[in-house]
Amino acid sequence: MDPNIRTALIIAALFVLVYGRSFLGSRKKRELTELLVNDDNVLVVDVRTSGEYREGHVDSAINIPVENIKKAGKKLGAKDRPIVLYCASGARSRVALTNLRSMGYTRVYNGGTLAAVQRMVSG
User: Fold this and answer.
1) What is the pTM of this model?
2) How many beta carbons lie within 10 A of that of residue 47, not counting itself?
3) Which of 5, 6, 12, 119 keeps 20 to 30 A from 31, CA to CA?
4) Domains of the chain, first to last
């Protein structure tokens, strides 16, 4: 392989590694913000404890602690309803997302933290 082409490929790969993740993250955030702002059917679920929820939450959110998520089918509605999950760090919402997807929910999103979802909701 030509050394110049090889160098160009290495530089391109490094660029994608460094900047690609940031670009994809910002694209996901924009799409999630649009969903939260424009879709009246979206369900926002706070998967923190009830105590954490009482200390502050997104106005439109319901509280289903992560350990109860598998029993919450009726509260969640149709399996194709858009559901945005959040918690304190994004870890519990990631667990809840995995559980819901394994139960057949198809439009489940990890909003990350309470602060992140509050920023998205406020536009």
Assistant:
1) 0.79
2) 28
3) 12
4) 3-121 (3.40.250.10)
